[in-house]
Amino acid sequence: EDLKRSHDDIRLHTELRTSCDADTKELCAGIEPGEGRVIKCLRDARQTIKAPACRAALLRLMMSSAENYLLDAPLAAACADDVDKHCATIVPGQGRVHECLRDNSEKLSPECKLAEAAAEAEEVEDIRLKPQLLEACEVSAAELCGGIKPGNGRLLECLLGKVESPEMGEGCKRKLRKQVVRENTNLAFNLRVKTECAAELP
Q1: Is residue 137 a contact partner of residue 159, using CB atoms and an 8 Å limit?
Q2: CA-CA distance, 64 to 51, in Å (whole number)?
Q3: Can you tell me the distance from the alpha carbon of 118 to that of 89, in angstroms, rounded to the nearest whole number?
Q4: Segment 141-199, tens digit of pLDDT
Q5: What CA dihedral angle connects 184, 187, 191 and 194, to 10 degrees?
Q6: What's the confidence (pLDDT) of residue 148?
Q7: Out of 49, 103, 113, 196, which residue is the most buried by the measure of CB atoms under 10 Å away?
Q8: Best CA proximity match to 192, nearest among 114, 125, 110
């Protein structure tokens, strides 16, 4: 519960509050803390954050909310009814509720669908924001992409490029093929397209 509160209000998140003080004042001035508003502002502006410590702290927070949707206050609020309706039996953690919502994307409320799409678009930037894929591909990543560090979509791009390799584990292949299907449903889920066509994407 304390962790959830700290993800709702930057004033209660010691690491973000201290390491992101200057960036928050510059990028999120005038935004009232609480209900995840300032943290959402920082996430939306993550590409322009200057302080390395702030970027690192924000990544750790994003990894936590990718694992457990309840730690993303705006998304949890937008999807509360949808979770009750479609994912009530799913235990939060390991990105399971996010996956359930995406598997039911055609049935989601407009608010939840938009929030989940925004979260998924963030995740393509770093495989560490995809806990199930990261776990399934841990061995394959070490064997086939050992020299590539996560970040800026590099490791995910490497794995996708080697999906037909006989050395790749079957569990990793399944997750990567599912990722390709997701990329084809929304161009914002494809980092190459997202980066090169940023001006054209909604």
Answers
A1: yes
A2: 20
A3: 24
A4: 999 999 898 888 899 999 999 999 999 999 999 999 999 998 888 888 887 766 666 55
A5: 170
A6: 94
A7: 49
A8: 125
